[in-house]
Design a protein that fits this description.
Layout: H1 6-17, H2 22-33, E1 41-45, H3 52-65, E2 69-74, H4 82-95, H5 101-105, E3 112-117, H6 126-136, E4 141-147, H7 154-157, E5 165-169, H8 175-184, H9 192-199, H10 203-216, H11 223-237, H12 244-255, H13 261-268, H14 275-280, E6 285-288, E7 291-294, H15 296-309, H16 311-331, H17 335-354, H18 359-362, H19 371-380, H20 384-398, H21 406-417, H22 423-429, H23 434-457
Parallel strand pairs: 1-4, 1-5, 2-3, 3-4
Antiparallel strand pairs: 6-7
Helix pairs in contact: 2-3, 8-9, 9-10, 10-11, 11-15, 12-15, 12-16, 15-16, 17-23, 19-20, 20-21, 20-23, 21-23, 22-23
Length: about 475
């Protein structure tokens, strides 16, 4: 009778479920095949739950096959002091049977590596790591730093590290990777579009959602389950505890296309003091010329978690942003802001169509604070959610009146108005190849978003699709 340890079973399961990261795995495979390490330090960064440790486990398994041994330090398990780091390295060597550590430190014995997971927790000693410890290691040792944050500028300015450090930033998985993951978990792949929409390829969110699907089937996509998952992921994504002021700043960040000091001050007033800096410290925050923004995978998880935690606060921030956008576009003094506002508007339309049959989720849509909804509510005396549903349905139905867009109407009507959960099923009902169906769906979404955008600017009146 064969015996397998829990570790063996967990490793086999992890390997079976590993998807995506083809470019990163190829890079690591090439490093293992080289006669010497092509870089001294590999800095792997990404927001929480993005799969950094999973990628490390994959590298460790490949390294073992290639005969390359290594040690791992988990910063989460040690105190951030020089003595604790050195002690952790010695203990890791002892636990791994790495008896020749002194010889390895002298440069003898072939290639090896040291992996430091959660290294952002050692930030008080990052200068020591960069200027003292790492330079003392032999060239036969590759150091892999697994961190939530990108490397600081000092890595490129001092000590010659810019030539020997390689950066790897992990973002969300692609829709095809999501489909492959569902296949490996023995979930109907036709749900991949829905899962991709709900998670934007965030690996941890996807894994939690698929775990629920394994246990309960498609019923797991209910509001309560999604709320629980999004709350857990939101707590994990934050690098620091968030109070009410921080949550409000977070809401601005996930709803706005880009977040600036000026935007936070306009929405939050005096409470905005220090919030831009707090947001910038978060590992998921990307900084561009126009301000801060989260990757789409973390944006969706954070937005959903914040919406469930505080629906009233979420809508209040959404209303403030919508009113500000209306004023700036009307004044025509900020064309770039108008362009960003439209992109964010189109994203909200896409999410609202996804939630068309869920009034509870639509009740938190930022579109409810848009002028085309507010004006219709006042004119008809109709609840905002019903107005939004009617506006989206009318825009879709208007596409049926033109030979140019009738095929787009069919794709949208089956997918959203009929509420077919599985996109492969929708494609089958339309008797279309799946790729053709997806292209028509994307074009139809763009048409609907364009009509609602015009309605927003024209006081509730949208044009019918042109003939």
């Amino acid at each position: 009778m064969s015996f397998h340890s829990h570790r063996h079973i967990l490793t086999a399961t992890r390997d079976e479920h590993f998807v995506g990261r083809a470019r990163e795995r190829e890079m690591l495979a090439a490093a293992l095949q080289a006669k010497s390490w092509p870089f001294a330090v590999l800095h792997v960064s990404g927001a929480g739950g993005m799969g950094k440790t999973t990628l490390l486990r994959d590298f460790q398994a490949r390294a073992a096959v290639a005969g390359v041994t290594g040690l791992e330090i988990r910063a989460r398990d040690i105190h951030p002091t020089v003595a604790s780091i050195e002690q952790a390295l010695a203990e890791a060597a002892a636990q791994s049977g790495f008896s020749d550590l002194p010889m390895r430190m002298s440069g003898a014995g072939g290639r090896w590596f040291i992996a430091v997971d959660d290294c952002q927790l050692l930030s008080p000693y990052e200068n020591w790591l960069r200027t003292d410890w790492l330079p003392s290691l032999p060239s036969t040792c590759l150091v892999i730093l697994i961190c939530r944050h990108r490397p600081k500028l000092e890595w490129h300015r001092h000590g010659g590290w810019h030539g020997v450090i390689s950066e790897m930033r992990l973002d969300g998985l692609s829709p095809s990777d999501v489909g492959e993951y569902l296949t490996r978990r023995r979930i109907d792949r036709s749900l991949s579009g829905r899962v991709a929409d709900l998670t934007a390829g965030h690996p941890l969110t996807m894994a939690m959602l698929v775990d629920a699907l394994v246990r309960r089937g498609p019923e797991a996509l209910d509001d309560a389950t999604l709320a629980s998952i999004y709350r857990s992921v939101t707590e994990m994504l934050l690098d620091e505890a968030a109070g009410s002021v921080q949550r409000r700043a977070l809401t601005v960040c996930v709803l706005a296309h880009n977040t600036t000091h000026e935007l936070l001050s306009a929405v939050m007033g005096a409470d905005a003091d220090g919030m831009f800096e707090w947001l910038a410290r978060q590992s998921w925050a990307e900084v561009g010329p126009a301000g801060l923004f989260p990757h789409e995978a973390t944006r969706i998880a954070l937005a959903a978690g914040l919406r469930w935690q505080d629906p009233a606060g979420y809508l209040q921030v959404s209303r403030s942003l919508a009113e500000r956008d209306d004023c700036r576009v009307a004044e025509r003094d900020a064309p770039m802001d108008a362009e960003h506002g439209r992109a964010e508007f189109e994203r909200c339309v896409r999410l609202a169509l996804r939630d068309y049959h869920s009034p509870s989720r639509l009740a938190c849509s930022p579109l409810l604070e848009r002028r085309f909804v507010r004006d219709a509510c006042q004119a008809r005396g109709t609840p905002p959610v019903a107005v939004l549903q009617d506006s989206m349905r009318s825009a879709i139905e208007s596409l049926a009146g033109s030979p140019r867009t009738v095929h787009l109407h069919r794709a949208l009507a089956v997918t959203y108005l009929q509420g077919v959960e599985k996109q492969e099923v929708a494609a089958g009902q339309l008797d279309l190849p799946y790729g053709t169906y997806r292209r028509q769906l994307r074009r139809g979404l763009a048409e609907v978003a364009s009509m609602l955008w015009i309605a927003e600017r024209n006081g509730g009146k949208h044009r019918t699709a042109s003939l």
